[in-house]
């Protein structure tokens, strides 16, 4: 009898009624902009808008991995396919979005438990390109929630939307019983590193990558980590 391979965990269970109530409470406590935004778990039909923002957050990473693999198919097309399906790290199940009535989705946070990131899953797709970023995949903070991507559309930056999404990610992490939030950021993205430090993240280590013409970064990828408040300080939900 063939053993059934366990399904990798996603954050979908975190968005139960209790977590949605916590998200609503945070939304009422923050005022990210004059325009009313809705913060909610993503749905499959959000995949195209989410893919564009995830590619933006990657700083060329997804173009490096996926461009030119299939004729007439872009990196954003491939990411959108992954977002629209369940079970994968980029899945809509692992995304929160900020949505505007006039502009649609203007922000996204993609996150999942770091321990669910199986390197072999990625390496089976395009081995040579994923081999190149292998140091990034191996450098992770096990036991943390991994914030894989956070991005805000240009016209909505500087209004607290990113801060709001980080706060929601922290709340979901605590709901999952995880005490740390981690992320990767390009070493040469000084502005982003400064932003994350303001939010309480500290540097943990650097994944050194060989120079590649298709990947426009120098210095490798920096792993950062934030210790979340203790359970006693979690947001109370009626």
What does this structure look like?
By secondary structure, this protein is α+β, with helices and mostly antiparallel strands. It has helices spanning 17-29, 47-58, 61-66, 75-84, 119-123, 127-132, 134-138, 161-175, 190-198, and strands at residues 37-41, 95-100, 104-113, 145-152, 180-186, 202-207, 221-227. It is globular. The model is unreliable at 1-14 and 232-238 (pLDDT under 50).
Short structural description:
The chain has helices spanning 17-29, 47-58, 61-66, 75-84, 119-123, 127-132, 134-138, 161-175, 190-198; strands at 37-41, 95-100, 104-113, 145-152, 180-186, 202-207, 221-227. With 238 residues, the chain is an alpha+beta fold.
Record the SSE blueprint.
Blueprint: H1 17-29, E1 37-41, H2 47-58, H3 61-66, H4 75-84, E2 95-100, E3 104-113, H5 119-123, H6 127-132, H7 134-138, E4 145-152, H8 161-175, E5 180-186, H9 190-198, E6 202-207, E7 221-227
Parallel strand pairs: 4-5
Antiparallel strand pairs: 1-2, 2-3, 3-4, 5-7, 6-7
Helix pairs in contact: 1-8, 2-4
What is the terminal-to-terminal distance?
47 Å
Shape: globular
The strand order across the widest sheet is 1-2-3-4-5-7-6
The biggest sheet amounts to: 7 strands, mixed
Total helices: the number is 9
Helical amount:
25-40%
Got a strand count?
7
SSE order, one letter for each helix or strand: HEHHHEEHHHEHEHEE
Helix/strand structural class = alpha+beta
Overall pLDDT score: 83
Given as residue ranges, the uncertain stretches (5+ residues, pLDDT < 50) are: 1-14, 232-238
Strand content: 15-25%
As a whole number of angstroms, the C-alpha radius of gyration is 17 Å
């Amino acid at each position: 009898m063939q053993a059934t391979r366990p399904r990798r965990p996603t954050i979908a269970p975190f968005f139960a009624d209790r977590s949605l109530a916590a998200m609503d409470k945070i939304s009422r406590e923050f005022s990210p902009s004059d325009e009313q935004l809705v913060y909610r778990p993503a749905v499959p039909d959000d995949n195209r808008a989410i893919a564009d923002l995830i590619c933006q957050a990657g700083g060329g990473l997804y173009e490096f991995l996926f461009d030119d693999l299939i004729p007439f198919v872009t990196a954003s097309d491939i990411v959108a396919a992954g977002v629209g399906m369940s079970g994968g790290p980029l899945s809509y199940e692992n995304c929160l979005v900020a949505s505007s009535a006039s502009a649609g989705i203007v922000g996204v946070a993609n996150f999942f438990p770091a321990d669910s990131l199986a390197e072999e899953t990625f390496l089976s797709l395009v081995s040579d390109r994923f081999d190149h970023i292998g140091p990034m995949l191996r450098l992770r903070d096990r036991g943390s929630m991994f914030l894989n991507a956070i991005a805000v559309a240009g016209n909505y930056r500087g209004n607290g939307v990113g801060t709001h999404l980080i706060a929601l990610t922290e709340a979901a992490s605590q709901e999952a019983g995880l005490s740390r939030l981690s992320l990767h950021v390009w070493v040469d993205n000084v502005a982003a590193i400064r932003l994350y430090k303001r939010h309480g993240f500290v540097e943990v280590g650097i994944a050194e990558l060989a120079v590649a013409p298709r990947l426009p970064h120098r210095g490798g990828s920096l792993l950062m980590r934030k210790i979340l408040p203790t359970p006693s300080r979690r947001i109370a939900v009626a």
